[in-house]
Protein 1
Amino acid sequence: MATKVCAVAAQPGHTKDLQSIQLERGLRIVDSPGVIFDLSFLEHQFTVLPPISGYGDHFRHNFDGYVVYSVLQAENKTAGYVQAFRNGCIEAADALLLSNHKYIPSVSFEDKVAKALRAYLRLVQRLDIQPPVYVALSLLRVAGYYMAVGNDFDPFDRKYIDRSELLLPEIAVEDLSKDPYIVLRPSFDMVWNAAGWPRSMNYYDDGSRKV
């Protein structure tokens, strides 16, 4: 017996709203409208689209849409970027937070990711994209890293991440005005799990933020 769970058609343009169907655990198929957004308003508005580390000293239109990025002049390397795609997707990458050391700065890491997400969700709202939207966080080349914590915890009780890549499950955001610290809590907990902790210690037991 077949059951229809979404609207489909052979002709392009039939999909008017984002459709998401869970096929099985860990596998979801998403069908989005063939919409191209006008990103011209982002010209020189790099504060609307900040990289994760918080600043972008270069910005330009490109084939995919609009990109803001920062450059380490001494090394002539890109330190981070955020790309707004014409279809409404946003991709951000950062090479500063976890550079030149083998630990994750627990408070700074969570703060910078959450503040960047807040800006990206505001942009999604400005583009009038309707929820749900999906957020996915990944950490690369972190094998051997540990979670740096404050003086409330034993700094010598270190447990190390045992794999290079942490590819965290996506999070569905149904309310675009929701506090990004709450949105990202499951992902933060999993990063702390990877470093041997039971959860992010920057939250109280009731889920409210400590810092």
Note: The CA atoms of residues 84 and 90 lie 5 Å apart.
Protein 2
Amino acid sequence: MSEFAIDPSRLLNPLQTTSNRLEAQTPFTLPSEKSNPPSSLDYETLNPKPNQPITGQPLTGRGIGLAGAKQIAQFLESGKNTDNALFLAKNNLGDAGVTQLSKALQNDKLVKHFILSQNNITSFAAAGLADLLKVNHVIGWLILSVNKLKDAGLVAIAEGLKENKSLEHLIVDGNEVGNEGMIALAQAIQTHPTLKTLVISNNAITSLSLPTLLELLKTNTTLSKLDLQNNRLTDDDKRQLREAAKKKPGFILYL
């Protein structure tokens, strides 16, 4: 056991739930188009919670670091896990910790929510996440808010998404992403069969990404929510995106 004395069998999912409970809930619902969407920095604040957690020590914000990540990875590989969510935001996992977890999840058949916000993740870990997306067709939620993926990280994740068949919600706000990453990602998900939500706000996307974004809105048939707030798009860029979104019934666009 590490110095954190984590019991992974009790801490993987801080919600008191069976492995099917979350599947029956809507884990993330953006509000109406007229209001501002909630911050995606803390996934747990966006979800209805049962009355009691499995344990009084949920993993979010515990600073488990690489040692804790290794322990959880070993537990996942043991085949003993019965929960469907890994809430690991704010844990200083770093690239090494996320790479360990990504490898352990490659053959996992239960975990559907992989929450990694604020973990000092860079493009080095993105390579492992891309490999995970290529072979794991169970994970539906990947939340990477406020890390340091940058363009190289998004390019890697885009490659993984080309072979992915399960991801429904991708949250990559606040990752210093520019046009190279945005264009690669938009191209990769044009024909993605399941992706419903893309949050890529608080980045550095400019007009250079506009043609690819317009093509995405025209081509993709599954995406229903796109958050591009707090980027570097011009008023005319936003006008064109709104016009394109109007042609998609029920589509929610945040600019």
Note: The radius of gyration is 18 Å.
